[in-house]
Amino acid sequence: MVDKDSGKNFGGATRYVLDEELAKIVNISMALEMPLLLKGEPGTGKTMLAHAVAESLKMPLIVLNVKSSMKLIDALYQYDTLTRLNDSRFGDSSRDVSNIEEYIKMGKIGQAFTSDARTVLLLDEIDKADTDFQDDMLDVLDQMEFDIIEIDKIVSAKTRPVIIITSNAKKDLSDPFLGRCNFHHIAFPDPDMMRRIIRVHFPELNNDLMDKSISAFYRVRQLDGIEKKPATRELINWIRALTADPDFKPKQLAKGDLPYLGVLFKKSPDYARAQAAVNGRRLN
Length: 284
Description:
Layout: H1 20-32, E1 36-39, H2 46-57, E2 61-65, H3 72-76, E3 77-79, H4 81-90, E4 104-106, H5 108-114, E5 120-124, H6 131-143, E6 145-148, E7 153-156, E8 162-167, H7 175-179, E9 182-185, H8 191-201, H9 207-221, H10 232-244, H11 251-254, H12 261-264, H13 268-279
Parallel strand pairs: 1-8, 1-9, 2-5, 5-8
Antiparallel strand pairs: 3-4, 6-7
Helix pairs in contact: 8-9
């Protein structure tokens, strides 16, 4: 029997800055018992939203990191045939070799179904999987049950998990998949939203450093030819680096002198372009 927990609403978490529209779609998805599909460029907080929901609602978080080679059965359960073979050979285990169920281990979706407590189930980067995986997975999540073929047993969810699905839009998702989810696109934060985010992470940060670092950050994001633009987490780490340097002065940023570019840019061509811009002082 699926247990409904409609008494809890998500209103944000200690280190997650939430806009009103996103809060509404999270809460309506829980009320309608539908998966929430999140799209947006890397670094916009898609994955962290699941952590924030789990923290806010005091639910366990189970994360399935989707891989291109993953089969749905791996997300449901695994039958450990190797351990059973070893047990039958050596006979030094407390397990009953004749009982196959003792060798069944739940995958991430199986763990969410069999958990006594309601969980937040994060299916991260679903666009890496093929279409069959996506559609078959949503069949399981709709029905809230799956079959363990080896023992002819149906596993039904004890409680319906809060399901959050992320996509980096590297591959189109099927129409049936999209039709069975609620959807929200998380845009990259504008400077005002970014200030709110940074203030959460650095409550005591000097306003001058905050303004100058955020301004410099958006300038380097706009450089031509950058393949992997720095995201929010890079800005946070960059500010950590700047504040850890006793010789750094915020006025350097206003002059276009941007130290520690390796914190912002992780690919060699991007780093080279940014370094050339800094050397040419084209960032002030």
